[in-house]
Amino acid sequence: VTEPDLAGRHVVVSAGGTREPLDPVRFLGNRSSGKQGYALARTAAARGARVTLVSANAGLPDPAGVDVVRVGTAVQLREAVLKAAADADAVVMAAAVADFRPAAYAAGKIKKKDGKDPDPIILLRNPDILAEISADRARPGQVIVGFAAETDDVLANGRAKLARKGCDLLVVNEVGERKTFGAEENEAVVLGSDGTETPVPHGPKEALADTVWDLVVGRLD
Ligand code: PMT
């Protein structure tokens, strides 16, 4: 039996991976399936929360009883998260957000030019949504959770990222071409800004999600 310990709370979860378009047929993207974020949304709803799920290119069915807002790019994800976070008790950023986007969008498909090298792709920096919502909380006491997808020096990079982003909790998970992305299971260490470290053993993404909500509940007033 799930405790309704999030009843009366509004939580925002981002999921999936942003796509940054180059032309009508191509984009820069990443390997996120959305499964970890959707597991967070489902478990929060099961614990009684009102849930807004900001979903980037996930291709998964809408979880029952969850408000789903679909977005494509990092800029769109930022707009949707800021809007939903205005009255939220907690925000969990599980989405894989592109740090950069192409400076130019070609209205027509980019063509090969015979015998010529391709043009380089110029990139612009995307807004850092997690750092922004952490620095400028929409309401006092709002709990903000980030994820860190790392391929090496996982914990050291995670600790540095927690300090840089300014969130309350950071879920550090290892990723690779076939690791974590798209999988049914995950394992992680949840770092707290108070110095706590909560290891979560390999298991279903729902189990990690429930541990995240346990830690969030402990921080809500
Ligand atoms: O979707 P799945 O296939 O289930 O895979 C799950 C996952 C690996 C995508 C997920 O567990 C995960 O790690 N999500 C975060 C991916 C990511 O973007 O990590 P990062 O280390 O690059 O970013 C750190 C944090 O800052 C994240 O919370 C991210 O949402 C946020 N961010 C990043 C860049 C940016 N411009 N704005 C942000 O808010």
Automatic annotation (TrEMBL):
Keyword flag Magnesium: yes
Transmembrane segments: none
GO cellular component entries: phosphopantothenoylcysteine decarboxylase complex
Catalytic activity: N-[(R)-4-phosphopantothenoyl]-L-cysteine + H(+) = (R)-4'-phosphopantetheine + CO2; (R)-4'-phosphopantothenate + L-cysteine + CTP = N-[(R)-4-phosphopantothenoyl]-L-cysteine + CMP + diphosphate + H(+)
UniProt-recorded Gene Ontology molecular function terms: FMN binding; metal ion binding; phosphopantothenate--cysteine ligase activity; phosphopantothenoylcysteine decarboxylase activity
Any one GO biological process: coenzyme A biosynthetic process
Cofactor binding: number and manner: Binds 1 FMN per subunit.
Cofactor dependence: FMN; Mg(2+)
Keywords, alphabetical: Decarboxylase, Flavoprotein, FMN, Ligase, Lyase, Magnesium, Metal-binding, Multifunctional enzyme
Biological role: Catalyzes two steps in the biosynthesis of coenzyme A. In the first step cysteine is conjugated to 4'-phosphopantothenate to form 4-phosphopantothenoylcysteine, in the latter compound is decarboxylated to form 4'-phosphopantotheine. Catalyzes two sequential steps in the biosynthesis of coenzyme A. In the first step cysteine is conjugated to 4'-phosphopantothenate to form 4-phosphopantothenoylcysteine. In the second step the latter compound is decarboxylated to form 4'-phosphopantotheine.
Family: In the C-terminal section; belongs to the PPC synthetase family. In the N-terminal section; belongs to the HFCD (homo-oligomeric flavin containing Cys decarboxylase) superfamily.
Designated name of the protein: Coenzyme A biosynthesis bifunctional protein CoaBC
Native source species: Streptomyces actinomycinicus
Gene: coaBC
